[in-house]
Design brief:
single chain, alpha+beta, two-stranded antiparallel sheet, 4 helices, 31% helix
Length: 150
């Protein structure tokens, strides 16, 4: 029987081990990953956008097709988020992530940001990277004031 699974790159609230375990009980943490050529932004929810001079810290999970279906529901796929596959040199999928369909930068709510911070701590990621994303947002978002939190 084929092992039907995919590698999923988490960069936002799904970095949080507790949240991911609730959403995808069969997901297996694999490794930390730095994705060059992308920038972490917020469009209320976390998103990443192309930026050749930037990078995004995140993590890979091995997920089952059942986990993927659950993530699709939580992420609002295909309306709120779409899936983006990262391919190797031979055109095979290395991993995928969800990318937000909206274009307007909007500051995240405080509780949501704290869930992401906890995820950064869970994976041992450098919080300075998340702080840099928030500084970028403060300079570029429509409303630089965070709603519902610190």
């Amino acid at each position: 029987m084929l092992n039907e699974s995919r590698l999923y790159f988490a960069y936002g609230s799904n970095l949080n081990h507790r949240q991911m375990a609730e959403r995808c009980p069969k997901a297996k943490p694999v490794s930390v990953l730095r994705l060059d050529g992308w920038r972490l932004v917020f469009k209320r929810g976390a998103d990443i956008v192309r930026d050749e001079g930037a990078f995004v810290l995140g993590a890979l999970y091995g997920i089952t097709l059942e986990d993927e279906a659950a993530l699709d529901v939580h992420e609002g796929y295909p309306v709120t988020y779409t899936q983006h596959a990262v391919l190797d040199e031979e055109g095979r999928e290395r991993f995928f992530f969800y990318k937000k369909a909206a274009n307007t930068l909007r500051m995240p709510r405080g509780e949501y940001l704290e869930t992401i911070r906890a995820g950064y701590r869970d994976w041992g990621l450098d919080l300075a990277s998340l702080d840099a994303a928030m500084a970028y947002m403060a300079a570029n978002a429509r409303s630089a004031r965070m709603e519902g939190g610190r």
